[in-house]
Amino acid sequence: MAALMLICLLGGAHSSYGASLLKLSPDCESDSKTQRRHAAHFTFQPDPVPTQYGPTQKMNLFQSITSALDNTLANDPTAVIFGEDVAFGGVFRCTVGLRDKYGKDRVFNTPLCEQGIVGFGIGVACAGATAIAEIQFADYIYPAFDQIVNEAAKYRYRSGNLFDCGNLTIRAPWGCVGHGSLYHSQSPEAFFVHCPGVKVVIPRSPVQAKGLLLSCIADNNPCIFFEPKIMYRAAVEQVPLEPYIIPLSQAEILQEGSDVTLVAWGTQIHVMKEVADMAQEKLGVSCEVIDLQTILPWDVETVCKSVVKTGRLLISHEAPITGGFAGEISSTVQEECFLNLEAPISRVCGYDTPFPHIFEPFYIPDKWKCFDAIKRMINF
């Protein structure tokens, strides 16, 4: 492994040994024609075209976010969008064109200060307006941690419901992207699910992203909306043009099965779909795939009903395993479904290290790690 790392750093093209090792690592490919550095560890699987919300248009994930924000600004004259670089469209282009359409008083840049962004959003929401704050990367939400957990989440409780900041939605790009390394690949949802008073939501696709974001904006509680950045351009679906909502705190069963329950959210859902196909083809194992969608408050009933049926549970997320939300799901299922009896539950997650760069393919919980977990559970 050390030799592979050295060859990656030096280019590795000066020896036949190096050239042979390069073939083992997609991230070290030197030929630009065959470079796979930005290749995803999953294949995006679009949902069926929704017909219940009216006309649709082909959109990728960032365009569906833009559509949701456009709908909000058009229908809610109090709505404002603010954050670092949002005026020109943001680094991922999610707000492109909105300032020109709605004016600089409703879509505007802020200083590079996450604590100030969220603090300002709390004030805007408390004043009765709809505040949509963008944190440029989820990795940089930590300076705003105090504002979120000590102010936004507790505002309603501390006043006995006399006032609140429920009109606040915080958006942030989330998860690994193939080349983001330690400061642009984190999945910090577990930090916030320990905090009553906020809702945490992560979509899997463009259709889900628009419906869930509009639900967050309409919700009476402050919401954190994490957007899987690797799918901003890679995920494409037919998305309804008109506004629509997808209810929060309701998990969705994407595939029914009888042998193993697979639970994930965001990007990892597409890994689970591939794993389910592999398990059926190679092992004859029927998997039920559940997208949690809302991480807090999560849909305990749907997950537990599925696990009672299948008798096995696999949970997977990109965040480190220790303290990750998979542990909460696992313990709740043990209590609710098996009354503390031993049960075949497995977690396939990131390692307890900072998110690496050249070793990212070894870090992420890919389909092969999840497939191995299923094989172990089947023999339980």
List the helices and strands and how they pair.
Elements lengths: L1 H9 L5 H7 L33 E5 H15 L4 E4 L14 H5 L4 E3 L4 H13 L4 E4 L10 H8 L2 H4 L9 E7 L14 H4 L6 E3 L4 H13 L4 E6 L2 H4 L1 E5 L11 E4 L4 E5 L3 H16 L3 E5 L2 E3 L3 H11 L2 E8 L4 H13 L7 E6 L9 H4 L3 H12 L2
Parallel strand pairs: 2-3, 2-4, 4-5, 5-7, 6-7, 10-11, 10-13, 13-14
Antiparallel strand pairs: 1-8, 6-12, 9-11
Helix pairs in contact: 3-9, 5-6, 11-15, 12-13
GO cellular component, one term: mitochondrial matrix
Pfam families: Transket_pyr, Transketolase_C
Enzyme class: oxidoreductase
Would you give an account of this structure?
- With 380 residues, the chain is α/β, with parallel strands linked by helices.
- It has 3 domains: 1-37, no CATH class; 56-240, 3-Layer(aba) Sandwich (Rossmann fold), CATH 3.40.50.970; 252-378, Rossmann fold (3-Layer(aba) Sandwich), CATH 3.40.50.920.
- It contains 15 helices and 14 strands.
- It has helices at 2-10, 16-22, 61-75, 98-102, 114-126, 145-152, 155-158, 189-192, 206-218, 231-234, 268-283, 300-310, 325-337, 360-363, 367-378, and strands spanning 56-60, 80-83, 107-109, 131-134, 168-174, 199-201, 223-228, 236-240, 252-255, 260-264, 287-291, 294-296, 313-320, 345-350.
- The strands form 3 sheets. The chain has a 7-stranded mixed β-sheet with strand order 3-2-4-5-7-6-12, sandwiched between helices.
- Helix 3 runs parallel beside helix 9, helix 5 (114-126) runs parallel beside helix 6 (145-152) and helix 12 packs across helix 13.
- Residues 1-38 have low confidence and may be disordered.
